[in-house]
Amino acid sequence: MQMTTHDLKQMDLDYTLHTYARNYTHFVRGKGARLFDNEGKDYIDFGAGIAVCSVGHGNERLANAICQQAKELIHTSNLYLIEPQAKLAKELIKQSGYDMRVFFANSGAEANEGAIKIARKFGEVNGETKRYQVITLDSSFHGRTISTLKATAQDKMHHYFGPFPDGFVYAKDILDIPNKISPVTCAVLLELVQGEGGITPFDKAEIQKLAKFLKEKNILLMIDEVQTGIYRSGELFASNYYEITPDVITTAKGLAGGVPIGAVMTSLKDIFSPGDHGSTFGGNFLSTRAALEVLEILKEEKQSGRLEKTISYFTQKLQNLQKSYPEIFIQEVGLGLMRGLRLKDTESFNLFLQKTCENRVLVLKSGKNTARFLPTLTISKEEIDEGFERINHSLKDF
Ligand SMILES: *Cc1c(COP(=O)(O)O)cnc(C)c1O
């Protein structure tokens, strides 16, 4: 018997740590871009579990791949060969076109920890003085572990948890990065579209210029693609879209469609020796088999032209909405299926969030006042239409 929402909420409050400002909607299943609550009511999901459910909810192909792998073998440890892990690494390299090798972890933060370790070792073994500083950007987000929290250049997240590891320096924006370089700088870590910082895509020419400049300085360019990666931008990586060749790429969220996984890829193919880095769960049979299926599905979406059509249809819908309600939405921003609508302040954003949820369409927040849209990459025209109809309906009460 399914629990009542009331009992479940109480159990959640009694037994789990209160780290999330939860919305107490009680979902029990999903199909495509729809979620169903315990009363059978359907919601249009424009958040996809924060860019995680890349191939939609209840995807048959993904479910079958996971079930089959679970019956065969879930985990052996990285002490032995793991066929889907090697195949997934090869597929990521093939689809990205980057000449790199891959290490698998279990989350975005963990992938970024790997990137920071690559940067530190690179700084230790290259050049006369030991270099250890990593430059990151204001309004960035890189994770919740102690060092990725410090890499996250948002002071409000640094209360209580110090002392933090040394070696992170913050730049205001892309153009400010050269000012922050010192003799001990080994790397720059940044998102090409800041996911938590208000859906802010950086300028392509500025990024390309920065990439060239860092190469000349022998400083690593590390791109955090935990949110932008896995076809969210329309290309496998936003780095592909920006036409740059980073030294390090991290990714996670959409990679295995909801099964926990993270990956760090680097062109420094021999940076690590056995013992330098590792993970118990990272790259196991279950998560990498799931990710292989996700990449197969998304490659088909891309090659058939469906992904491009979905992106332009969704974007058109958002732009129309912005034009119809310019007094509510100041600006439409974003890239691919990672998009945002800026509202004039936090108050109107909160009202928007409440009204859309009442009308059963799920939207996320980014920064102080941006409504963030990260739909599943396989969302149908009908689901998009339904979602926007519901949003339009919620605006009647504004
Ligand atoms: C979500 C996110 C992370 C952290 O990923 P976790 O899996 O929650 O550890 C890091 N960087 C970016 C850009 C993210 O969006």
Automatic annotation (TrEMBL):
A GO molecular-function descriptor: transaminase activity
InterPro entries according to UniProt: Aminotrans_3, Aminotrans_3_PPA_site, Class-III_PLP-dep_AT, PyrdxlP-dep_Trfase, PyrdxlP-dep_Trfase_major, PyrdxlP-dep_Trfase_small
Gene3D superfamilies hit by this protein: Aspartate Aminotransferase, domain 1, Type I PLP-dependent aspartate aminotransferase-like (Major domain)
SUPFAM superfamilies in the cross-refs: PLP-dependent transferases
Cofactors: pyridoxal 5'-phosphate
PROSITE patterns per record: AA_TRANSFER_CLASS_3 (PS00600)
Domain of life: Bacteria
Keywords: Aminotransferase, Pyridoxal phosphate, Transferase
Entries under Pfam families matching the protein: Aminotran_3
NCBIfam families, sorted: PRK01278.1
Family membership: Belongs to the class-III pyridoxal-phosphate-dependent aminotransferase family.
Record protein name field: Succinylornithine transaminase
Organism: Helicobacter canadensis MIT 98-5491
